Fold each of these.
Amino acid sequence: YQAVLVFVGIYSNNYIISSGSPEAAALADYLQNQGGRMYLEGGDVWYYDPLYSGGYDFGPLFGINATADGSGDCGPVAGQTGTFTVGMNFSYGGENNWMDHISPTSTGFLIFRDTDNSYDCGVANDAVTYRTVGLSFELGGLTDGTPPSTRRALVDSIMKFFGIILNPGVEELGGGDLPLRTMMGVVYPNPVVKRLTIEYQLASSADVSLCVYDAVGRLVRTVVRGAAAPGYYTALWDGRDDLGRRVPAGVYFVRFETDDYSRTQKAILIK
């Protein structure tokens, strides 16, 4: 499997992954021995279940320290600067608002925090040999807002953190080897260490602008600018600015524009 996504639910419609169960053993083996990518969400899976219901303690594998059972106050939740959730902010309308409180430990890092009640509720973990994302709320209970605060953008960001590039769906060719639609494909690999690949296609001749911006919107690098003929293109960004200097690790935005099309994608640069 490229990734395993586990949704154990919110009380009283939750499932308990029992300690010693075949499910717990298989999931732990998937991470530790198969270099897996795993997403796990649940209102009680981190704190209450391991302490009081015989649930398996996934905390150490996920870089999570479960700190409290919580109370009925989840939401709104906000993404964190310097991570793949930067700029995200969601109100919450799940089955109920009673969620475990969790914080990062070891190689884990915070990706979501309840803003009005000041507790952590989402942690990602890069353990080198495997990667995980753990939430104490239901992703499906988030209320979409202005991009990037949408569930679709969040799922896409999680998949990219896992190193999974979703096929953008290239149009069938017609009338020769030219695309039927102008579009930008996914940027990869993401996170990026040395070189980011940016693919795009033009259905007709157009003035193209392909630029990289930092997290506060400042222009970092002009990758492509000028007129281009119809066809398929691949551009590369080497992590440098327009003066040839290596830029710091962090979140950057790649914006592709023509006269009648634009798209922006987030890229995480790591050292």
Amino acid sequence: MSLPAPGGPGEGRSDDPSHNTYRFHSAAAPVVATGNWLVKFEKDVSPHVRKTLLQQSLGGNSHIAATSEYRSTALNLTDLVQIADAVVLDRLGVAVLKGTDDVSSRSAELEDMPGIRRVMPEFFVFSYDEAGDSIHEDTAEVTWGVDAIGASRCSFSGAGVKLGILDSGFDKTHPDFAGRPVKMWSAFGCAGDDFQGHGTHCAGTAAGPHATTGRMRYGVAPGTDLHIYKVLNDKGFGTDGDVLAGIEKALEDGCDVISMSFGRGVASGTLPHSIYDDVASAALDVGVLLIAAAGNSSSRDVGHIAPVDYPANSPSIMAVGAVDSRLRVANFSNGSAPGASAAAIGGVDIAAPGAGVFSAVPMPRQYRRLRGTSMAAPHVAGVACLWAEMDASLRGRALWTALTSNAKSLHGARGDVGAGLVQSPFTER
């Protein structure tokens, strides 16, 4: 037996959840299980013991692969998941198990085994965005978002800071990035090119150039060291396993900030995803900040406020809500339900521009306006890089504090706007 193969360029998966039912530029993220399972090991469990525990769980003849195998051989992650019964992400201490009736029936028993911390079902995750609002600012020097967060008045560019964008890849042929080194990795065994557009748009917002010919500046941190991790396929979806593999690779590459503009819906009152929270908390401990979009499932105009999606509802991941050009909470932005306390589980931590956001998309279109918390999260990631360049001690939790303590106050519930509108260092208040 083998894990289902991730879709390559232009392809879905053998268990493709689309079926013409879902739009991948969708307001609400579907909830679709892959059939596989995630296992989180205790911190002190060695790689050898991890394999032993999985062998006990799956049977003595099972093929247990590890990410170290494709780091040191010609195998890529796609090869491994096709031939293995389980793949262990070494650095994170997480394994993805092929879903079988036996594994499903024994999930509670597996979680009780010494050395295993969590056993949870794996789900698909989806990108968040929709066609953007029309904002007439074509004669402006910078987009409204870059201006509102003060990046246009900041003397820093994010130079020397490593930024990881986990998304649908990147169009390295885009002329605005000509001559700029961009490191790329894919969970799907391909080059990491973006045939969907979401990843290029997010990367452009976070780290687009300081100036373009005849166009507004749209990038927040143009000097950052940009790393691209393709964890969503060309239909705009991936799995928890793909995302965790991307996080692991970003940590291995030394990224200081990791931006994620995807997720899946949760029910009101749902507890944070404990595996994502374990991974994000460990990342904070080593000085890496994970930032994620809160989700687009709300319809505030009719009183519906959806809770913050996975993985952003983790207390150790900075959840980003969206505001429009009038600095009002965007109609679609997830947050806290009416009457929820300021300390409600899974609220927004900070807000950023997320409506009518102009940025790069793959050629030949070149540019597009989109709206969504997907567009808000890379604004925060870019600002994080500016603060990190300003002060090398601002990493992990210290960087989180710098962002939230310097945010601009906004009207709205704390669970909807968090600390307020993210602000760049040394900007006018």
Amino acid sequence: MTAPPEVSVRRATWPADYYSSATPEPVLPRWAALGCGGASVLLLAVLFGGGILLSTGRFTDLMDLMIGMSVGEMKGMYTEDVEPERRASVDAEIERLREGLRNDEFPFTSLQPFLEAMRNATKDGSVTPEEAEYLERVASRIGTPAR
């Protein structure tokens, strides 16, 4: 007597086997899909609201507020070797820049070099005379209207 031929075991599942089997248990609870959809709708609403904020000019008010708060914090970061005259001139130049921003004398997109200079000057918690002078120069360049 001969042995029957061995039946090889299939390693891949055929689509017909998959679709004819019972429905598997869900991996995530039902509320997870609803939460993700709700989060995406909320994100779209925030982006849409941000676009409206940018188009109405209220963004310049927000930038003015943020610069004012940053300058208030920066006043306590000056090192001892920054002379009071330099401090006053930096503050005056930044105030002139903020005034120009409030009066729409230049687009708020031109603030990027000033914001980077302020970030670099204050990231270590102190403002040196060189950083103060550079900050004043950048603010003066942006705040001066093009002729």
Amino acid sequence: MRRSAGEALVRFVLFCGAFGLVRWATVTYGSWREEFSSSFEIRLDVWLGWIALLVAAGLVIGVACLPGRPVRYRIHVPLVITLPALVPLAHYAFVMEALRREWSDLPWILDHLMFYTDTGPQYAFALIAGFGLAAGFRD
């Protein structure tokens, strides 16, 4: 299957844009981490901005990998891929907000943070969620 030079250029620009979004997300994460380490205050708005940038990067990479031009969107495919990736991130945000408000009556299953408190799984889950959103495009 042959591709035109224009299509290859568009895909290259999309990949560069995705890497730019990942870089921007890394800078946002660095500022969030620095602010947290200096004030010990959890700012979920900055964290959500970081996650949203990573989801956008995954979406752009997913669109760049599509075999043809997307014509329509099917919602059932992204739901299967995106929702499982967003559940741990939503749990992390909920527990961080609960800790910030000093709620002590959380059930034990919600009170314990799992493996996704580290930044590596959070990066991966957010990128997978964005890639899952792009999976809904069909030609």
